[in-house]
């Protein structure tokens, strides 16, 4: 299996070729990936543009996870 190097939140990770954004985030932190999947955050590319969790990653991809609020808090007050 061929592996690709991608960067998630500035951490270098090796993921299998054909992996999607959600797989790369899960490789960094499975709980963070669950939070993003539940709508508690989103992923951007190196330019800060939001990208879909099912987008295939390429070698050298730079991904940043942006979370909304803090886990366990009620954003509506």
CATH architecture: Roll
H/E element string? EEHHEEE
- State the share of residues found in helices, binned by percent: 10-25%
CATH superfamily: Beta-grasp domain
Quick one: biggest sheet?
5 strands, mixed
Radius of gyration: 13 Å
Describe this structure in words.
It is a single chain. The protein has 77 residues and is α+β, with helices and mostly antiparallel strands. The protein has a single domain (3-67), classed as Beta-grasp domain (Ubiquitin-like (UB roll)), CATH 3.10.20. Helix content is 21%, strand content 31%. It contains two helices and five strands; from the N terminus they run ββααβββ. The protein has helices at 21-28, 30-37, and strands spanning 3-8, 11-16, 41-44, 50-51, 62-67. It has a five-stranded mixed sheet, with helices on one face. A hairpin with a 5-residue loop joins strand 3 and strand 4 (50-51).
Brief summary:
The protein has 77 residues and is an alpha+beta fold. The chain is built from 2 helices and 5 strands.
Strand and helix map with partners:
Layout: E1 3-8, E2 11-16, H1 21-28, H2 30-37, E3 41-44, E4 50-51, E5 62-67
Parallel strand pairs: 1-5
Antiparallel strand pairs: 1-2, 3-4, 3-5
Helix pairs in contact: 1-2
Which characteristics define this entry?
5-stranded mixed beta sheet, 77 residues, 21% helix, alpha+beta
């Amino acid at each position: 299996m061929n592996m690709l190097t991608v960067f998630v939140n500035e951490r270098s990770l090796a993921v299998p070729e054909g992996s999607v954004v959600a797989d790369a985030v899960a490789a960094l932190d499975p709980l963070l990936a669950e939070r993003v999947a539940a709508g508690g955050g989103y992923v951007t590319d190196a330019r800060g543009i939001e990208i879909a969790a099912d987008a295939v990653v390429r070698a050298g991809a730079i991904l940043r996870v942006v979370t909304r609020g803090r886990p366990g808090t009620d954003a509506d007050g």
